[in-house]
């Protein structure tokens, strides 16, 4: 199949070219995001392969249909950026990579927790300047603390297992409690009841209409004062303005983000020589108790290999049978 691959970086091309040796698809790489403004790049392609910050709305899908393009092969687990109803109406299939490397994201979650707790980011900067004072670097033992896991799918369960290894008590919220989670010792409760118990709240849920701004101003008020918040799922799970208010009041003790609700114009690009015009994001960067990484939780050799191999397998299955291996349908958001 001829595939238009959007939002590509050199590392995407390396891993996809390596995996494609077993499939033989024609991959047309584009650095541009997929959006209504870039649909001309679809011309001649039978499928598109977008990433997390590409926009696959009704306008894009109509342009795909007009060009004879029949498949959206997401190279991500999330599909909140696709208008699934419009895709179904136009007869366009949607596929995803359901579990490329849950270990990668869960381990990055713990990297953020440990960095925030032990102030590694601040200590690193001090030592490079010859400042070896420990004032302001006081942390706490994770052992005995309560960790709240919001979303106990594959990633959430691995994060829970790691936190259990540190000696944390685990409380969890998930509309569909997991038997494996219970076996790990997760005490399932409601989201509202989880918040005042947890010293650390970590988010591992998909972005849906129900989870958008799940942590809003009302939820921030319910937090245990000084709680640590970590989000490695989707940016819009957290209302950023509410989080900033919580940081200013001290209700949020520290915040670790690998995702941001307006990240599409920021993440995956080198903007070091430019002024960042997002005032909300700029405000976040002023807090010493905030650590932000640029959506790199997935970024391991194992994950990139799995993303490329699964995406190409979806393409091959669709070419052969008319159905990808891992389809996404409207029913998944019901």
Any idea how many domains? 2
- The number of E-state strands comes to 12
Assigned CATH class of the largest domain: Alpha Beta
Helix content: 25-40%
Measured by DSSP, the beta-strand proportion falls in: 5-15%
Q: Any low-confidence stretches, pLDDT <50, length ≥5?
A: none
User: What fold name goes in the CATH topology slot of the largest domain?
Assistant: Rossmann fold
Read across the widest sheet, the strand sequence of neighbours is 8-7-6-9-10-11-12
Assigned CATH architecture of the largest domain: 3-Layer(aba) Sandwich
Identify the quaternary structure here: single chain
The chain-level structural class is alpha/beta
How do the SSEs run, as a string of H and E?
Answer: EHEEHEHEHHEHEHEHEHEHEHEH
N-C termini distance:
31 Å
- DSSP helix count? 12
Average pLDDT, to the nearest integer?
A: 96
Sheet with the most strands, sense and barrel status: 7 strands, parallel
């Amino acid at each position: 199949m001829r595939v238009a691959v959007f939002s590509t970086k050199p590392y995407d091309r390396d891993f996809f070219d390596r995996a494609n040796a077993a499939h033989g698809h024609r991959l047309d790489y584009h650095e541009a995001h997929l959006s209504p403004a870039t649909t001309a790049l679809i011309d001649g392609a039978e499928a598109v392969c977008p990433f997390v910050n590409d926009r696959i709305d009704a306008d894009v899908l109509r342009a795909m249909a007009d060009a004879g393009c029949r498949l959206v092969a997401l190279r991500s687990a999330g599909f909140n950026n696709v208008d699934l109803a419009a895709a179904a109406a136009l007869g366009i299939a949607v596929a995803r990579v359901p579990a490329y490397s849950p270990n990668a994201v869960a381990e990055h979650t713990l990297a953020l927790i440990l960095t925030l707790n032990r102030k590694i980011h601040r200590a690193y900067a001090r030592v490079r300047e010859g400042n070896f004072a420990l004032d302001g670097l006081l942390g706490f033992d994770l052992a005995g603390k309560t960790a709240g896991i919001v979303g106990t799918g594959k990633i959430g369960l691995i994060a829970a297992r790691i936190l259990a290894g540190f000696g944390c008590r685990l409380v969890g919220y998930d509309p569909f409690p997991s038997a494996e989670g219970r076996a790990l010792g997760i005490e399932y409760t409601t989201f509202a009841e989880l918040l005042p118990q947890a010293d650390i709240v970590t988010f591992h849920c998909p972005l849906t209409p129900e989870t958008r701004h799940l942590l809003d101003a009302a939820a921030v008020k319910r937090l245990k004062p000084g709680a640590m918040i970590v989000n490695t799922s989707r940016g819009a799970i957290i209302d950023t303005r509410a989080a900033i208010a919580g940081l200013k009041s001290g209700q949020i003790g520290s915040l670790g983000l690998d995702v941001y609700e307006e990240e599409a114009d920021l993440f995956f690009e080198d903007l070091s020589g430019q002024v960042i015009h997002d005032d909300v994001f700029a405000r976040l960067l002023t807090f010493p108790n905030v650590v932000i990484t640029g959506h790199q939780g997935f970024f391991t050799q194992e994950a990139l290999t799995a993303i490329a191999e699964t995406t190409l397998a979806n393409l091959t299955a669709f070419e052969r049978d008319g159905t990808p291996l891992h389809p996404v349908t409207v029913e998944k958001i019901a």
